[in-house]
């Protein structure tokens, strides 16, 4: 395994999955851990998680031949989340086809056993010993053992994983399969984020013989197996007859993908689907409120970020101009206009479900006069800014509002809508050919991943912020909270970006569907929880 400093692990850019995930936030997407908190379990298999999540209904143990149809907007670009960015992939496959050693309990936010029945942490916080569940098999019939677990974690640090999210396991020094059911992981240094990272896609368990064609075939231990993919339309999952846990209620799941919010809503209104996994036109909820539907509204980890390219030579390299942008935006008005007032203003990269949350909405209050002063001080009157946004409903809706507000204070804004994901990823995420963009980052505890490296598309990652992130990861839990609060304050005060609002979790479903998550705090949409009551 690679041995490296926590700085490298934490400041490595989070995969563009975060960016892609904004369109899926209502369906339980969120979750590559950047700064998880951990409390030694001493073998009890319980780590202290953070964040609240309610849940309506519950899971049921098999017994139905029914199909449930879930409607979404963003379709995966591939089935391979080891080489392809996109939150739609773990949303579909994680916890459903692929499982992890540990997972997040959506009701308590705690890290709880999954394929590992328990674990012990050494006193120096460097060695984790996992005891694995016996009798687990992959969908190809092979047995899941500690060799597969070691293979899966070691593979994250190989050239096989190309998405930047893989850097979360850089802190791992070695992995050893002690016997068939015992896995030992040794870290190069203590890390508060390590165990939480294992609940995300980097902790997915693969069959040693099942990784030859991950883009088109998924072999896992989960409650469902991958059946088929009608590209541009639908992915079908089938109940795993050999699943080691309680069988899911629904025999078949059809994840149906729609081009826009209206098509998604119409599918629900005409009984073409049973669940709207993520409402993409909040103003349309009135269509469902008087009908025979249930509406779920909660929160997510999805910070909608107005990023500003700070690379040398770009207009927004000037901090005064970035501050002007922040003062020019009336966030409540923006939220009311582009997302029907659904969501929450937070002012930073930390959602209220994290223990280091502080309300930072007062850092840059709406003050167009001050914005004009800062623009004049920077000699930037009439500066042209390219706002390059993905073709995702929230980005398109909010983009026009941002454009209007910035032009009101004397800036010239040109909006380019880039096809998502391919064009946006290439132009903004990879080539950094933009001045501003709007995208939702829905991974939990992702502040260090998004703002910890100047090489990431957000172009921040100062030495001071990197030091804070390293101290947060290696220190005590109390130090973690303090340092991450300092980091959030620094990112906000230096106007590294503007934080438009926190996406709500909005879902619509048939009235008898149970198991829908009130709060979306994981990368996956856990289909095994769904049932009919």
From TrEMBL:
<dbReference type="GO" id="GO:1904680">
    <property type="term" value="F:peptide transmembrane transporter activity"/>
</dbReference>
<keyword id="KW-0732">Signal</keyword>
<dbReference type="GO" id="GO:0043190">
    <property type="term" value="C:ATP-binding cassette (ABC) transporter complex"/>
</dbReference>
<protein>
    <submittedName>
        <fullName>Peptide ABC transporter substrate-binding protein</fullName>
    </submittedName>
</protein>
<dbReference type="InterPro" id="IPR030678">
    <property type="entry name" value="Peptide/Ni-bd"/>
</dbReference>
<feature type="signal peptide">
    <location>
        <begin position="1"/>
        <end position="27"/>
    </location>
</feature>
<dbReference type="Pfam" id="PF00496">
    <property type="entry name" value="SBP_bac_5"/>
</dbReference>
<dbReference type="InterPro" id="IPR039424">
    <property type="entry name" value="SBP_5"/>
</dbReference>
<feature type="region of interest" description="Disordered">
    <location>
        <begin position="27"/>
        <end position="66"/>
    </location>
</feature>
<feature type="domain" description="Solute-binding protein family 5">
    <location>
        <begin position="110"/>
        <end position="442"/>
    </location>
</feature>
<dbReference type="InterPro" id="IPR000914">
    <property type="entry name" value="SBP_5_dom"/>
</dbReference>
<dbReference type="GO" id="GO:0042597">
    <property type="term" value="C:periplasmic space"/>
</dbReference>
<dbReference type="GO" id="GO:0015833">
    <property type="term" value="P:peptide transport"/>
</dbReference>
<feature type="compositionally biased region" description="Gly residues">
    <location>
        <begin position="28"/>
        <end position="61"/>
    </location>
</feature>
């Amino acid at each position: 395994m690679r041995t490296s400093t926590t700085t490298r692990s934490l400041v490595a850019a989070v995969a563009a999955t975060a960016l892609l995930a904004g369109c899926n936030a209502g369906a339980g997407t969120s979750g590559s851990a950047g700064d998880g908190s951990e409390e030694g379990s001493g073998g009890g298999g319980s780590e202290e998680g953070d964040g609240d999540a309610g849940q309506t209904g519950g899971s049921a143990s098999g017994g139905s031949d029914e199909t449930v149809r879930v409607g979404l907007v963003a379709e995966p670009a591939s089935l391979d989340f080891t080489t392809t960015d996109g939150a739609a992939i773990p949303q579909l496959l994680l916890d459903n086809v692929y499982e992890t050693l540990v997972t997040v309990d959506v009701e308590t936010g705690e890290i709880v056993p999954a394929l590992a029945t328990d674990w012990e942490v050494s006193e120096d916080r460097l060695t984790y010993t996992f005891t694995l569940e016996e009798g687990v098999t992959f969908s190809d019939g092979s047995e899941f053992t500690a060799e597969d677990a070691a293979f899966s974690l070691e593979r994250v640090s190989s050239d096989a994983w190309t998405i930047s999210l893989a850097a979360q396991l850089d802190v791992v020094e070695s992995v050893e399969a002690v016997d068939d059911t015992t896995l030992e992981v040794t870290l190069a240094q203590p890390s508060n984020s390590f165990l939480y990272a294992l609940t995300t896609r980097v902790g997915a368990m693969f069959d040693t013989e099942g990784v030859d064609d991950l883009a088109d075939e998924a072999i896992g231990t989960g409650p469902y197996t991958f059946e088929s993919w009608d590209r541009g339309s639908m992915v079908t999952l089938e109940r795993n007859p050999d699943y080691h846990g309680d069988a899911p209620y629904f025999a078949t799941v059809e994840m149906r993908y729609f081009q826009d919010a209206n098509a998604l809503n119409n599918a629900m209104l005409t009984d073409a689907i049973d669940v709207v996994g993520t409402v993409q036109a909040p103003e349309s909820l009135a269509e469902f409120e008087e009908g025979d539907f249930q509406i779920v509204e909660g929160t997510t980890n999805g910070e909608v970020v107005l990023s500003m390219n700070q690379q040398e030579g770009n207009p927004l390299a000037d901090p005064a101009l970035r501050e002007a942008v922040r003062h020019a935006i009336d966030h409540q008005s923006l939220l009311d206009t582009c997302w029907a007032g659904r969501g929450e203003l937070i002012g930073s990269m930390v959602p209220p479900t994290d223990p280091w949350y502080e309300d930072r909405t007062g850092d840059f209050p709406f003050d167009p006069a001050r914005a004009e002063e800062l623009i004049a001080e920077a000699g930037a009157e009439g500066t042209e800014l390219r706002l390059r946004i993905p073709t995702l409903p929230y980005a398109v809706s909010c983009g026009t509002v941002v454009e209007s507000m910035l032009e009101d204070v004397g800036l010239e804004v040109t909006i380019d809508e880039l096809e998502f994901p391919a064009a946006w990823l290439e132009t903004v995420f990879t080539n950094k050919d933009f001045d501003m963009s709007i995208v939702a980052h829905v991974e939990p505890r992702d502040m260090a991943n998004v703002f910890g490296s100047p090489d990431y598309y957000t172009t921040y990652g100062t030495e001071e912020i990197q030091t804070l992130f390293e101290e947060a990861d290696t220190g005590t839990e109390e130090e973690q909270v303090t340092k991450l609060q300092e980091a959030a304050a620094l990112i906000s005060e230096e106007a590294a970006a503007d934080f438009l609002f926190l996406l709500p979790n909005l879902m619509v479903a048939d009235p008898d569907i149970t198991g829908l998550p009130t709060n979306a705090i994981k990368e996956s949409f856990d289909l095994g929880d769904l049932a009919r009551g």
